[in-house]
Write a structure and sequence with these properties.
It is a single chain. The protein contains 19 helices and 22 strands. The radius of gyration is 25 Å and the shape is globular.
Amino acid sequence: MPTSPHFPTLYQINTRVILRELSKNPKRVVTLDDINDEFLDSLAFLGFDWLWPLGVWQTGDAARTVSRTIPEWREGYKHALPDLTDDDISGSPFAIKNYTTHTDFGGDPALARFRERLKQRGMKMLLDFVPNHTAPDHPWVFEHPEYYIAGNSDDLAREPYNYLPVETKAGPRILAHGRDPYFPGWRDTLQLNYRSQGLRQAMIAEIIKIAERCDGIRCDMAMLLLPDVIQRTWGDRSKPSDGSAPVDAPFWVEAVARVRAVRPDFIFMAEVYWDREYDLQQQGFDYTYDKRLYDRLHAIAPQEVRGHLFADPEFQRKSVRFLENHDEPRAAAVFPVPVHRAAAVIAFLVPGMRFLHEGEFEGRKQHVSMHLSRRPIETADTEIRAFYLKLLGVLKLDTVRNGSWQLLDCHQTWEGNTTASRFLAFGWRGTDGKRLLVVVNYGPGQSQCFVPLPWPEISGKKLVLSDKLSEAVYDRDGTELCQFGLFLDMPAWGYHVFEVRVK
């Protein structure tokens, strides 16, 4: 397998939805083997290094029943599927009953074959790991209720949406639903207790088993396992119910070390919010979600984006940049087309892992709940697709996969013209010396600025600037570009990705 790039690209698919769409005959079982080679070939051709088939693990009847019976949840599903039926509601893939490949998808043998097909194309496979909670019918509920946060009858009476009575081998128990500190519990889950030494060791064993079947894991809501978050969410309720001594050491430090002892190349990615990205990187995560960049792009805040990109280079290298995923609204629904294109140039041409979601570069607009196995039919947006094909062509370049990046200054062109504040500019230099200049006017009006170029070796040379995203080509003087800067006069949401070469 080729050496992994410094800044890889990741593609996410909703496995259940994809397989359902492949099933033309409802009586025929469609598995991972039915995802055709042409689809995988296309992803490899587009330059993707990783594929994340979301939701491959075994789920069960208990969580699915919850998903089908809560009235407000069903109403939410109908926003995407007005013709909703019970067959469309498969339950959340994050309410996991067992870390074995779903029987509907062909089980572990089909997953192994799927991984091998990816490997043949130079791609790696990322899978889900849901550390915070399990499905209500996970075997541990009966066998090891001490692995969970326990409640009592008063808790159940006071907060019926946060607790559930269950049967265990030790008799009836009341266990807490999985949750974060800010919202009621997820009623299709039960909360694991990371102050329990037994649970911690069991979960590490699960990750080690998962690591035999893939190349990395995306850890759902990974910051919920931080000791201070556990304390804020659960307080004294997090004392192990079996009377054992509570453990307050960070779980991820131990887990990453134990897994890396077996699989040194295994990748940990964290879904993380609340400004806890750095904490998780320090605890061993290779990549962490960068929701802040998404929020600032969505807010049309170019100066906040610029400030965000002053972060430490190593922090940025480990940041996962995205414009949508299964939790966020579709990018095409929240960004008008010109803004969408400009935001994509920024998000995917800064350092980090570039994360794209199936349907994103077809311009899908309908966000579909993770509890559903069907989505509405949508017509591809040819304009968005054409743009992304060009952008993905740029992301295949070694210059932006393994090169060095720097944020560039954007200077005012004349006194009183403040439009330079709308610009973002980056320089990329490849290991082979090739140079790219990325400039974006991330604002609603015509804007001007000077961008001094950071490559002293171009001084005294005649240059050609060729835009990789359009047909634009310009001749410029290297000395002028180093001393004064490239003059830019660009329309609202305009962008260029210039290859800068000596004439």
